[in-house]
Amino acid sequence: MDDCVAAQKPGRSRLRYLPVEQLAPGMALAESLDFAERNIVRHRLPDGQVLTPEDVQQLVSSRTDLVRIVVPDARSDEEIAAAAAFVRASVEAIFAGADLGQPALAALFERVLAYRSQ
Amino acid sequence: MSHKLLREEVVASRDLLPVFPRVISEIFATLDDPESNLGVLEKLVARDPVLVARVLHLANVAASRSRRDDSIFNLYTAIALIGLAQLREEVIKSKLTGFVHGLLPAGVLPGLWQHGAATGVCAEQLALHLGLPAVPALVAGLLHDIGQVWLCRFQPAAFLSAWEEAKTRSTTIEAAERERFGVDHATIGAWLADSWGLPMQVCVAIRYHHCPDTALSVPLVPLLHVANVLSNALDLGGDYARVSALSQQCCDALGLRWDDSADLLFARIEAANRASAHFYDSPPAA
After folding, report:
1. Which of A95, B1, B98, B222 is deepest in the core (most CB within 10 A)?
2. Does B176 touch chain A (CB under 8 A)?
3. How far is B234 from chain A (nearest CA, A)?
4. Touching check for B245 and chain A: CB below 8 Å?
């Protein structure tokens, strides 16, 4: 979790979903979050917001389950390339028998690859 | 063909199997009545130490989120805190896990149950994502390959041969099963589900999970088909995750688009799968 803190520092980053119980002050939101009551938005935390202790407590007390945050990526270019190659090979093995000329299968393949590559 | 299976033979085998947990039917019978089976579930949970521990754990997690300072040790307080929906889910997972473990021969294809469990999680999360009823989805997902479990138990040599053929040749497991038994595991599973008194939508979803386009009028059919594909695509359970088909018509029927909006669904499925892992361990090895 510590590697998620201070995500606002410049440098390479990646996105990750975290359960609200694992959030900590200093983490940065990757997408905005709305807090609504009876379908009316009462409060919004914007994309890029660095979480304060109060924000974290508000999220933990809310119905939110997962939050997408920005995580600093300290990996080297070589490590990133190796991880990407591993992910692609793993996903291609799962879809080895699929006809990726079919739009639904091709779209799912690309989505899973993108999700695993984050 | 090794041995052409008939419905009567499969259904008659119930007498040789562990009794299907009655509580599953009771849950289905009272789904529209939010309070009616709470007492039944409370008594059932109270007799099961594993379920008691699980319910207390979930209640304490919920309590910590609502900033309660005191730990919860009382089962009835815990049940009141987690609510009937989550209690139903925990009972279904626990009872069907125990039931399937009782069916599977020890040490044979342990990944079979892990895949069923992962598909149950996918189906439940997909239902919640789409605003569809979660209980039928969970049960259909957990039991969708129950026909393979039956084949493992009653036709092990021919089934394992079909399994190996599907892995090593360019054929599907359903085709290899039909070649040997005259029917595939989806049909056998639907026969069993019907014989256990499960709702028709669950039986139909199990029957058509590999060929859903002919039964799209039942919403659980496309949902179970996609959930089965997702459990493999995300490599959640079992030791042979492969995706070979995905019905475009099912995706359209459910309104699913595989753009970046699917990432939250994937993340929720993975989180739910991790949270359920303690239920879904393999049966003991031989």
Report:
1. B222
2. no
3. 7
4. yes
Q: What is the DSSP string of A77-107?
A: HHHHHHHHHHHHHHHHHHTTTS-TTSHHHHH
| B141-154 pLDDT tens trace | 999 999 999 999 99
* Cα distance between residue A84 and residue B81, in whole Å: 43
Residues 213-242 of B with CB under 8 A from A: 229, 232-235, 241-242
Nearest Cα residue to B95 out of B129, B59, B47, B130: B47
Contact across the interface for A17 and B242, Cβ inside 8 Å = no
Residue given tokens 């119905």 in the structure block: A63
Which residue of B263, B269, B270, B274 to mutate against A (max A Cβ within 10 Å)?
Answer: B263
> Under DSSP, is residue A13 helix (H, G, I), strand (E, B) or coil?
strand
Asked if B233 lies within 8 A of A60 by C-beta distance, the reply is no
Q: Are residues A54 and A100 in the same domain?
A: no
The rounded Cα A91 to chain-centroid distance in angstroms is: 19
- How far is residue B22 from each of residues A100, B124, B166, measured CA to CA in Å? 44, 21, 35
Quickly tell me which residue has 């996105």 as its tokens.
Answer: A15
**A54 and A88 part of one domain:** no
ipTM of the prediction: 0.88
Show Cβ contacts of residue B150 under 8 Å, excluding neighbours closer than 6 positions: B10, B13, B103, B185, B188, B189, B192
Distance CA B1, CA A107 (A): 38
The count of structural domains within chain A is 2
What are the structural domain ranges in chain B? 7-21+95-275
| CATH class given for the domain over B7-21+95-275 | mainly alpha
Segment B88-121, tens digit of pLDDT: 899 999 999 989 988 888 777 778 889 999 999 9
Nearest chain B Cα distance for residue A4, angstroms: 17
Same domain, A86 and A107: yes
Distance between CA atoms of residues B100 and B116, nearest Å? 10
Pairing state between β A66-72 and A28-29: antiparallel
What's the pLDDT band for A63 if we cut at 50, 70, 90?
A: confident
Q: Which two tokens stand for residue B110?
A: 């342990």
Give tens-digit pLDDT for B25-45.
Answer: 888 887 777 666 677 778 888
